[in-house]
């Protein structure tokens, strides 16, 4: 009996040793580790941009004057409201600061508002050449819808178009006697003429734009911009002449200025705290 028990124990021990050896020869398998969650990406993109620029406002239009009562043109057998042929006026060139604020809907489309105020002296043209007509301020409140081209690296051109509202302020007549001809060619107005009152009506217009930013880094860039405005207000004035007295006149002034600008672009957001429209 003892021999039988001993044999069984020996067999069991040998089997366990064989199983251990066999297990040692098998490849090791470990349960896969639980997948770690991907790190969250915080996009620092912000859609705002500001530009600070110096702008030259260069009026490029013509004007036409009309005698509202027919006093002057009556001398030449014209009726009330007829044009004073050969009379005109043109605003002076002005250099001003300009602030533009843009909001980007995506990498290509943006809307930009323009803030500036411009002062102009108004001089006569034609028979009034060189005459001091007066002066005025204008705020051309403008909204431009832009398309930005973003496949040229740091060089990022754009085009824009949109409406504007021209608010005229602080109009002043020249109140200075100026040598001038009456509508009958060759007849000098005795004592000259002076504009004693001037009012320019606010008006709507449209503006077009082309320009580019050259980005130095993700925040700062250099901007060059060209805008063209269709700005055609109606002006009312009182002209005084010692020979004729006070004469109310109306003028249609096609100011139509070019705005030539250069300055800096700043884009909010970015790793260092500033990209407005991250491309």
Task: Compose a concise summary of this entry.
This protein has one domain (45-269): Porin (Beta Barrel). The chain has two helices and 14 strands, in the order αββαββββββββββββ.
Mean pLDDT: 79
- Name of the top-level CATH class: Mainly Beta
List low-pLDDT spans: 272-279
How big is the Rg? 39 Å
Count of helix runs: 2
Residue fraction in strands: over 45%
Report the major sheet: 8 strands, antiparallel, barrel
CATH architecture descriptor = Beta Barrel
The helix/strand order is: HEEHEEEEEEEEEEEE
User: And the CATH topology?
Assistant: Porin
Strand arrangement, major sheet: 1-4-5-7-8-10-11-14
Which structural class fits the helix and strand makeup? mainly beta
DSSP strand tally: 14
Apparent shape: elongated
Helicity, as a percent range: 10-25%
Tell me about this structure.
By secondary structure, the protein is mainly beta. Helices cover 10% and strands 53% of the residues. The strands form 2 sheets. The protein has an 8-stranded antiparallel β-barrel. It has a 4-stranded antiparallel beta sheet with strand order 2-13-12-9. The longest helix has 24 residues, at 2-25.
Secondary structure layout plus pairing:
Layout: H1 2-25, E1 45-58, E2 63-67, H2 71-74, E3 87-91, E4 94-104, E5 109-115, E6 118-126, E7 132-148, E8 155-173, E9 194-200, E10 203-215, E11 220-230, E12 234-241, E13 245-253, E14 258-269
Antiparallel strand pairs: 1-4, 1-14, 2-13, 3-6, 4-5, 5-7, 6-7, 7-8, 8-10, 9-12, 10-11, 11-14, 12-13
